[in-house]
Structure formats: C-alpha cells, structure tokens
Prior knowledge:
The chain is mostly helical. It has one domain. It contains eight helices and no strands. The longest helix is centred in the N-terminal third of the chain and has 32 residues, at 3-34. The protein starts with a helix and ends in a 6-residue tail after the last helix. Mean pLDDT is 76; it is low at 100-106.
Amino acid sequence: xxxxxxxxxxxxxxxxxxxxxxxxxxxxxxxxxxxxxxxxxxxxxxxxxxxxxxxxxxxxxxxxxxxxxxxxxxxxxxxxxxxxxxxxxxxxxxxxxxxxxxxxxxxxxxxxxxxxxxxxxxxxxxxxxxxxxxxxxxxxxxxxxxxxxxxxxxxxxxxxxxxxxxxxxxxxxxxxxxxxxxxxxxxxxxxxxxxxxxxxxxxxxxxxxxxxxxxxxxxxxxxxxxxxxxxxxxxxxxxxx
Length: 241
C-alpha cells in the first residue's frame, strides 16, 4: 500500500468517525428513548437515501448545498431536543436521577401499533445529515488524491465500526432510567441542533467541531441548574440536587 493510499484511508476513516459518532449517538439515544423499531426504520431509510444520492451524484455530491440542509435539520433537532430536555428536567427534579422504574405510562416509548414517525424522522434526519458529511469527506479526499475507492472504504469502515460499538452498548443504555435518558438525549439533540442550525445560517464556530463540546457542557450545566431550582420548588426545599 502506497503512502498516498494510506494517508487517504487513515484520514477518511478518522474524519468520518467523528461524524459517525454523532450519527450513532443520535440513533442510539432515540432508539433507547422512543423504541427501536421505528428508529431503525428511519435510520435504514436514511442510509438507503444516502446510497441512492451517492450512486447518482458521485463526485458532484460536493455541489449539494449543505447550508440549508443543516439549518432545516438543526432547527428540527432543536425543537425536539428542547421538548425532551424540558421533560427530562421536570422528571429528574421530581423523581431524582434513579427515576421511578415502575412508572412507564408517561415515558416516551411509542405504544401504538403503527410507526412512531417522530423517532423515524429524527433518526432519518440524523443519518442523512451526518451521512452527507461523511460523503463530502470521502469525495473530497478521494477525488483530490485520485483514490476514491480507498476513501469510500475508509468512510464506510468508520460508520460500520462506530455503529457496531454503539449498538453493542445499547442494552446498557436501556437500563438507564427513562427520565435520565430524556435529559441526556434532550441535551444531545439541543446541542447538535444549535450547532447545525447556526452553521446553516453561515456562522463559523470559533473552535470548529470542538464547539460541540462547549455547547454540550453549557446545556448540561443549564439543565442541572434548572433541576436544582425545580427540585427545590417541588420538595419545598432550598435549591439543590
């Protein structure tokens, strides 16, 4: 294997892994919170659409405007994320971080016979957006180095490896109290929604993708602060966890 091929393979794998982690985080979080059937159906539909887009567009994929897509998907994630964050804050404040496992009727799992379109849409949008990011990485590096095949291999490998790890731990995720899952997923969706929607408006984050960590910390601290205030109100005590 030449140095050029090795560089393309390693670069596309590592760069795609960053995007794949975000994709798997969203899908696993939604699946553990809302249920897996509709979530996996949405993710599968997203991968199917990506396959069609990549097959048809090829190198022309770089011409697809990612800005409006980021704005649309980011706004949707922000709306859903804030709703889940609010519910998570209120329920953790009421029941604590251990939750009330015997109370299941008010959780977010879909109980209907048909498709949970909320879970489907969130998983679909997350896979499509992050998948397009991976495709951009693959096409850019592959076309520049004239090693598109190895670039595709690196990108696909990153998604497969990250997905296997994510779904390998999803049984542990399902043991987490529902209220805590709502809080965590709400923080994640709100974080990604904020990041993508502002990027879609053309705003460049000072630290690039690392700004996600800052947003995550901000929303997590804000949620903990609101939990302290709400828990003090519910229990009739001074604010505190």
